[in-house]
Amino acid sequence: MRIDVLTLFPAMFSAYLGESILQRAQTAGLIALHVHNIRDYAAGKHRVTDEPPYGGGGGMVLKPEPIFAAVDAIVAGGDAGRPKVVLLAPQGRRLTHAVAAELAAEPWLLFLCGRYEGVDERVRELLVVDELSIGDYVLTGGELAALVVIDALARHVPGVLGDEHAAERDSFADGLLEGPHYTRPEIFRGRAVPDVLRSGHAARIQRWRREQALRRTWQRRPELLLAADLDEADRLFLLTLAREMEPYDGTNG
Questions:
Q1: Hey, is 107 helix, strand or coil?
Q2: Which sign does the torsion angle of CA 118, 139, 7, 145 carry?
Q3: Deepest of 88, 142, 183, 187, by most Cβ within 10 A of its Cβ?
Q4: Which residue numbers are catalytic?
Q5: Residues 198, 81 within the same domain
């Protein structure tokens, strides 16, 4: 897939996109990443990209002309078709595991990083197809949010992860948080790896991991259980957890 990014600060992307899994994905030709400076498409000697808002108020607003010029140039220099233009903004829909998988199925994405008070509304009306937020808080710009989205969706692109089923075991993939993991040494500072993980019994290990995921979700994000895909064994285990959490009143053992 191809991903383009429009930003006023392209240098913010080079370090992260040039390391680890994302770097290997690009080298393997699985993802093509292109970062563009909005200022390069601004007109005039000073290449102005932002102006005060009409009606007054604090802050600056990104002008529409350089953004449209940038998208037109990117489309003209790309393959047939147009990218799905996604604006990173606090007003966007929340990024989730499912949204990341949805985006990974797109052949061409263009992320627009807002700055200051945001973008001229006509950019939203005429250019943007989707808006994304990574949480209910405000960042200085959309660059960090764009990196988060790119990292999350890249995990769903076939071949990016060494194990093709790895993303299916991530937290939220099946509605639950992921359980604990252990590696060597077997004992560290008095804490031992659970016996079941050293048993070699695949079915027992699988069930233990499922129960640990249920336990962690129950403890940390219980609302996720309302929509999780649970079987009868899961429900019985949750019932056991509920009993463990009941306050002792002399009648419940």
A1: coil
A2: negative
A3: 142
A4: 90, 117, 155, 170
A5: no
